[in-house]
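Blinded run. Sample ID left blank on purpose so nobody reads anything into the name before looking at the predicted structure. Input follows.
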Amino acid sequence: MSVEQDYNQQCLEKLAWAMKQLDIALEYQDLAKITELIVQTMTGPWRYFHTPEHIFEVGGSEDAIEVLAALFHDVVYVQVDQSVNFNLTYYIVPFVRQAGEHLVIRDASELPADSSFEMVMRVFNFSGGQTLSPLEGQNEFLSALVAAKVLEPFLPPKFILQIVACIEATIPFRTPNAEGLSNSEILYRRLETITQQLDLKLTQEDWKATIISSVRLSNRDVGSFAHPNPARFLDNTWNLLPETNHHLKYSSSYTIHQYRTALQKMEGFLNFIKPEVIFHQFQGYPDDTVYQNLVKRARKNIEVGRLYLGSKLFTIAFLEALSLRFGRVIPVSTLMGEMPTENFVAASLVDFLPEIDHPHEPKNELEQQVLTLLDKGRTQSASYDIKNSPLATYMVKSMGFDEIRHQRDRAQEFFQNVISAEEFLSGCDIHVKKTVTDGIVKLFDSRKAALCRS
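Blinded prediction complete.
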């Protein structure tokens, strides 16, 4: 069975189970059509993290509404797919148009009378004529709209409302409003109003249960932030990188500048994100102990990620500055060597770096964890990058983390053209600079010898 066939089977089984739990009878061909729509979208060429495995995990296996919401919650991801999947446009185009580079909800005068769309609009508190923003629920809104339109022939409005509410809750990293209300509390109030406006048969207990379902779902959606193993957190981070940095798909040709830019964006995100806004809590669920543990583990993983990425950023900045001595568009593989594959292992820069006689030792648990991650690696290699970072490890052991942090700050000046590449290099450790430069020369010499072999 192929990977896609396995995804189809799992998706079909989850759909069938959820419908049975809700006492909804669906023909096999209807389940198969919905399955094909979801899996085809979630296996697009740029999907590395937001894949079928992700939606199966996010949905859990205990609540039908959560399972259905999870299956649809990422079907639209414009930044990743670079567009809306063609098969989904059937459900979206009557309500949303493109204006330049933006997607805009059609004006009220253009919108057809449609109860499902109106419900989605109310849950998200959006309005006609509104320009959608990727950072403010664009993908979640469009995914919820697809879910509502696909499921409306089969499910009563009250179930669709609950599914849409769960998808709305997956808009990430929102702070409390001016009144201090969390998103869960705001969504609870909206459900109360919508239920009354649409005369749906939902009680106050139903609203509360829906919000708790949305909390479970949204917390699973960002669950990797609180993974007990920082290496697994970084695995997911590395799977996210190529979704919005598509050049990384081509491991032998992406440039040093392109790789550096991808790392910069992720480091910027980790420097911006606050652990307190990642996870949700509503009326004691999850309880304070569980919630605080989630926040605590997220804080730890973010700290690890920041130092890990900062170390790699200095290392790639060093290579970028060296590469500018002979070109402006230099692939990483030119200076580092190609990624090893099952059928091909080429010489690598690290093959020509000497052992360090007296390496700097980590000064605390954070530094020890990051050094181990750089040296031993994450739990898995990405398709575009090996799991460990031998050059960054060499830099850290040679210079120590305090100097790495200092040089990371100097690298920012280099990135912003405040200092030149040569000025940046002149402020780096002389011994490290000579050793790495000599290593690159030896790598080039090994290629010359291989090329000239008779």
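Unblinding after everyone has recorded impressions. The chain has 20 helices and two strands.
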